[in-house]
């Protein structure tokens, strides 16, 4: 490896990125070819000279592996160079303050791209590089910077067209094309996703071990984030939820400031980002290590719903099947407990269960926690194929209501694992943390585990 490269920041094996670009270019060619333009995410100011921690654009990273801000990618079907990066250059003064940069000269070799130019040359170089492309793919109606580039590029191409090939006649949304690719993970991604999942699972184990009455929600959050960082994850892949007692009934609770009490449950929804890839795990367990009977009843019901959803994940099933399987189990359980009335079919039809279960059972997972790619197309749920990764996260959230026994009020329970669709069914990436009630109780009794 070239000693000038920012050490450890770029992958040595570039084949996955090259394959993705080749596959994308092949898809552009099918429709007659053209050029694809994609910027990475901007840096965002937090206040007074500080920025939010930088996170690259997921599509951009997926195609380049490049992790620095201020960059555009150009892919072209019609001639070489087919892959061009516009990026910031080396700058000793800036690097002294802000950190190392890959730079223009090193970028082609480090990223496996055919050419690189300084970002400052983007407007000047684009007309010559895009001339002759019959169509353009770029993020449409996304932000003013992209729109402004296009407003400068198209007139330049039209001027050029007087003496040469016509300007592109069609615009397409680049995001939709890339999103559909990202729905199916390659082997390189699955390795990173398994690592992300394993780190997150161990963070949940740690939270279970250190939990005891009197600690604050933020203490468990701190343990979780420490475990993420200790194993090389960049940090949480979404704001960590540590919700004791009734806080668990607030679906996106992130205050994490309450003190945990004996006799209550705590719901933790926490996942990390490892080399860009998210994990997403929820466990709900007793603060003092022992489920009370009403808690255990509902916990086992949610677990049964999750098992039914997991059993419904296989190639040929649809994205909706796990949700429907989970809802059936939850509704039957709520009818048996007397929380709902009428028949199973009536409750499903009238969706009366939504008082207790108001969210979906899963979403795609990948570079983004709610990953790219439609779940429904042409009004129909997407058919599952091997390589897709989705979460399985049924829950129950019991309100204070006269028609519900008081023992169950304010219980919030969710169980969430990450499932990879395989040839025969699915494989859970996140089971290094226990899920059965007895196994959780056993782990919590053995502090040294
Ligand atoms: N933690 C976000 C989610 O479960 O969807
Ligand atoms: Mn989730
Ligand atoms: Mn989650």
TrEMBL record:
Origin superkingdom: Bacteria
The keyword Ubl conjugation belongs to this UniProt entry's keyword annotation: no
Keywords, sorted A to Z: Aminopeptidase, Hydrolase, Manganese, Metal-binding, Metalloprotease, Protease
InterPro entries named among the record's database cross-references: Aminopep_P_N, Creatin/AminoP/Spt16_N, Creatinase/aminopeptidase-like, Pept_M24, Pept_M24_MAP, Peptidase_M24B_aminopep-P_CS, X-Pro_dipept-like
Gene Ontology MF terms in the entry: manganese ion binding; metalloaminopeptidase activity
SUPFAM superfamilies, per database record: Creatinase/aminopeptidase, Creatinase/prolidase N-terminal domain
Alphabetical list of SMART domains matching this protein: AMP_N
Enzyme Commission code: 3.4.11.9
Catalysed reaction equations from the record: Release of any N-terminal amino acid, including proline, that is linked to proline, even from a dipeptide or tripeptide
Cofactor(s), by name: Mn(2+)
One GO-annotated biological process of the protein: proteolysis
GO cellular component: cytosol
Pfam families given in the database record: AMP_N (PF05195), Peptidase_M24 (PF00557)
UniProt domain Aminopeptidase P N-terminal: residue ranges: 12-147
UniProt family annotation: Belongs to the peptidase M24B family.
Protein name listed in UniProt: Xaa-Pro aminopeptidase
Source organism per UniProt: Tepidiphilus thermophilus
């Amino acid at each position: 490896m070239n000693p000038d490269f920012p050490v450890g920041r770029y992958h040595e094996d570039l084949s996955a990125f090259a394959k993705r670009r080749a596959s994308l270019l092949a898809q552009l060619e099918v429709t007659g070819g053209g050029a694809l333009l994609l910027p990475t995410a901007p840096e965002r100011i937090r206040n007074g000279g500080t920025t939010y921690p930088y996170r690259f654009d997921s599509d951009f990273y997926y195609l380049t592996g490049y992790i620095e801000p201020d960059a555009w990618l150009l892919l072209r079907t019609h001639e070489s160079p087919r892959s061009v990066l516009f990026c910031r250059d080396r700058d000793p003064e800036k690097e002294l303050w802000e950190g190392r940069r890959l730079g223009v000269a090193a970028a082609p070799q480090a990223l496996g791209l055919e050419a690189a130019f300084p970002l400052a040359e983007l407007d000047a170089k684009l007309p010559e590089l895009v001339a002759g492309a019959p169509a353009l793919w770029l993020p449409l109606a996304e932000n003013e910077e992209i729109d402004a580039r296009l407003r400068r590029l198209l007139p330049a191409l039209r001027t050029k067209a007087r003496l040469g090939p016509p300007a592109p006649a069609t615009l397409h949304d680049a995001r939709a094309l890339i999103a559909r690719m990202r729905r199916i993970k390659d082997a390189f991604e699955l390795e990173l996703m398994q690592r992300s999942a394993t780190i997150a699972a161990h963070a949940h184990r740690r939270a279970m071990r250190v939990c005891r009455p009197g600690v604050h929600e933020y203490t468990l959050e701190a343990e979780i984030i420490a475990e993420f960082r200790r194993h090389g994850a960049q940090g949480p892949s979404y704001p960590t939820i540590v919700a004791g007692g009734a806080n668990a009934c607030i679906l996106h609770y992130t205050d994490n400031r309450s003190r945990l009490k004996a006799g209550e449950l705590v719901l933790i929804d926490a996942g990390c980002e490892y080399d860009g890839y998210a994990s997403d795990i929820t466990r709900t367990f007793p603060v003092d290590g022992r489920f009370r009977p009403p808690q255990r009843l509902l916990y086992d019901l949610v677990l049964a719903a999750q098992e039914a959803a997991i059993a419904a994940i296989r190639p040929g099933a649809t994205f909706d099947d796990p949700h429907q399987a989970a809802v059936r189990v939850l509704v039957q359980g709520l009818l048996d407990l007397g929380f709902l009335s009428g028949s199973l079919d009536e409750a499903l039809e009238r969706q009366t269960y939504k008082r207790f279960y108001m969210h979906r059972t899963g979403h795609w997972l990948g570079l983004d926690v709610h990953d790219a790619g439609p779940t429904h197309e042409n009004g129909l749920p997407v058919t599952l194929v091997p390589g897709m990764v989705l979460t399985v996260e049924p829950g129950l959230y019991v309100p204070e209501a006269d028609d519900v026994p008081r023992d169950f009020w304010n219980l919030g329970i969710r169980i969430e694992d990450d499932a990879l669709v395989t040839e025969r069914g699915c494989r859970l990436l996140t089971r290094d943390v226990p899920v059965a009630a007895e196994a959780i109780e056993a782990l919590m009794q053995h502090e040294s585990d």
